[in-house]
Fold this protein.
Amino acid sequence: MVKSSLPRKQRLARYNAPLHVRQKQVAAHLSKELRTAHKKRSMPLHKGDTVKVMTGKYRGLSGKVIDVSLTRRIVAIEGVNVKKQSGKEIPANLDPSNVMITVLSERKKS
């Protein structure tokens, strides 16, 4: 990341980060079982992962990740919806730090 400790430079680096760096920024904690299996505390989120919401209005709900936006650094989860004024329901945009991965989707070996 950036070597400067100035908050304004940290924010600027986050704002101007390329997509391969943003992918790492869209990461979530792993459940205890996955933590022991993979020997990691967190992993980047991918479409198809099953997650559980840990904080906020939707705490306790779980579902599959249906969309990961690297440009906005948000995730959309199946079954976690917001009702618009028109009555239409759309997926709620959640911060990746507020969810925990419970089941990993198939990952490509690189």
In short: The mean pLDDT is 94. The first strand starts at residue 27 and ends at 30. Strands lie at 27-30, 42-44, 50-53, 62-69, 74-83, 89-94, 99-103. The chain has three helices and seven strands.
